[in-house]
Amino acid sequence: MTDATDGVLHTLFGSDQHPDQGGHEQVVLCQDRASGLKAVIAIHSTALGPALGGTRFYPYATEDEAFTDALNLARGMSYKNAMAGLDHGGGKAVIIGDPERIKSEELLLAYGRCVASLGGRYVTACDVGTYVADMDVVARECRWTTGRSPENGGAGDSSVLTAFGVFQGMRASAQHLWGAPSLRGRTVGIAGVGKVGHHLVGHLLEDGARVVVTDVREESVRRVTTAHPEVEVVSGTDELIRRPGLDVYAPCALGGALDDDTVPVLTATVVCGAANNQLAHPGVEKDLADRGILYAPDYVVNSGGVIQVADELRGFDFERCRAKAAKIFDTTLDIFARAKADGIPPAAAADRLAEQRIADAAARHRVPR
What we know:
With 369 residues, the protein is α/β, with parallel strands linked by helices.
């Protein structure tokens, strides 16, 4: 069906109308010609509560590419929120276009109206291409907005706790593989040192690790090396993943970092990073396991940010959030133990645990999964 609200066009699909959704409850296509807004909001599940997930602003090559990304990201948020112990389902939004060229106050306000029209089924936040200041604008039209600035009643930058959570996942990986929860003396390669990767560098250096970085943005690399001159820089991800002596590979940019080309040449024995949807396709998790590479499921270790924005809805308390994010260490260890016991890769073990929590909640509330 279609419905026009404040100049924003909504097209809603139920999973029975669009079988390619993979069980998603709802997909919303938003368009506002005056501002240039063209966006997709995907709600995968509300079994555990209102869907929660960020807004990605990216110059997708095609609308189909944006649609697919929204669906995959929303599903990942369902699993992430379930494993983080949050009373939220999974959702995600993507705004199509180059944020450097088309982002404007008018466009963000139109997007806020689109989110508001869902009546709280979807709660939005920051993601790639969107920032705290953007959420402040969106919140002027939509009260279901998190990741706002402290001056506007929000928690501020969620990348701080995202990086802290990834670091906890690395500590758990080290405990499982090497017998001690520390990266001291290990070499960690980080691909992408923007929001999250920059903070992760600091945690690792403080823990005594050697850090190697790469990023397509020279200014991001320069910011890291200015603050931490001891950090090594390589020319690109291909050089990073092939680097001799690499212990941990941390993908912290866009998804799909682990594919048929990268896994065979990866020198690290642990993969643990902040990027969403790191596995390019089903089967990559087995390829990693077959090579003896320990994979810390991305949506488990990078959940510190969503823990923060969820807490914002109840009145943000940083220490409460940090304590909850610290539990990522235990959750990651539990997943490794479950994977070993069941004889399956950690990604499959995490999926089973998340799916069980969602299914249990769906059965209790009798809502679609």
